[in-house]
From TrEMBL:
Protein's recorded name: CCHC-type domain-containing protein
Domain of life: Eukaryota
Organism, as annotated: Loxostege sticticalis
Domain CCHC-type: start-end pairs: 210-226, 229-244
Chain intervals for the UniProt region annotation (Disordered): 1-28
Amino acid sequence: MASESDGDDTGGGRGTSEAKKRKLRDSTVIDEGKYHPFTKTGYRRTYPDNFISDEYPVYVESQNKEERLGNRNPLQISRLFKNVKGIHERRRVNSSKITLIFKQAAAANDFLSHECLKEHNMRAYIPAASVERVGVVRYIPKEASNEELYAKLTADQEIIAVRRFLKKESGKLVPLTTISVTFVGTNLPQFIYLDNWRYRVYEYIPPVMQCYRCMKFNHSAKVCRNNQVCSKCSEGHSYKDCNSTELKCSNCGGDHLAISKACPIKLAKTEQNKKSFANVVKTSTKNNSFPPLPATTKLLKNSVIEIKPTTLKIDEIVKNEKLMNCLIKTLVSLGNSNSIKTTTHIRETLIKNLGTLNG
C-alpha cells in the first residue's frame, strides 16, 4: 500500500528493499501468480480534478540509482526546472529525492510528463499518501486470487490495488485471510463488498521500516551507506556468515535477533509510527476537502462513471423528463431485483442509469 510509503507512480505500491525481494524469490509460494499483488491496468497516480489542497507535491529522483539528486547543489537543481511552470517551492526530502510543490493540481499532473525529466534522466511521481489510502480487510477466502478479488470487490471509492497478506511456514509463503486494498482518495470507505457480502475496512498501519544492512530504522538497505551489521550477533558481517550461537541485538543489546518484533526499541518505534501515521491522516483530511469520491464509484465491471455535482432545484428536477425517467427506471429495477439492496448497490444502479442520460 506505508507508513503508507511514498511509493512510485505505479500506484498501490509500497517501497520494498532488495533484501525483502530476495526473500520472496527464495521462498516457495503456493501458486505465486495467484497471490501476486494486483494493480489496476494502466493506472498512474495523479491528482483528481475534485482534489482541493493548499499544495500539490511531486517527488523527483534520478533514474540513475547511483546519483543522489538531493545531495546536489540546490542552485544547480533549480536550473533543471527553469522551463517548468507552476512551481511554488522546492524541498529536499533525502539524499536521493526532492519535492516540487505546485499550487494547482493540473500543473502538478502536467509536470509528470514534462520533457525536462527525460532530458535530465529523472523520474517524477505523486506521493501515494497524497491521493491514496490503504485499508485492511479480514476473513477473505484464501482461494480467491488478487485479480479475482479486484474484479468482484466494490466500494464507495475507486479500488486500484489488491494484495494478499502472506506468512512464512516451514520455509514456504502461505496465504492469509487478510488482504490490503488501495483506494483513490484521502479517506477510507467504512465497508467493502464482495459478492454482496459486507466487510469492514480497517486502517492500515504500516510496519516500521528497518534496514537489513545496518539494522537501524527509518531507511532501507537500498539507500544505506552504513557498514554491514549481523542481525544475529551484531558484529560487522552478514548473518549468512555468522557462526555465533548467542544472539545479540545491535539496537538494544538484548538476546534476540535485531529484526525481532519483541525488541523493545522496535516496539517503541512501532508505537511512535502508529501515532505519527494517525497525525498524518488527520492533517491530510483536514487540509483538503477530497470527499469519499461518490463520483468515482468502482462498479463490478471496473468502470468508473463521473457525476458532476448538480445544483438543480426540486422543481427543475421534476420538470426534467429524462432525469425523472431515469429515477423511475432505477426504482423499478430495484423493486424487481432479488439481490440484497445495500446503499452501495442502490447508488451503483442509479449511477449506471444516470450514465445513459448522455448516451
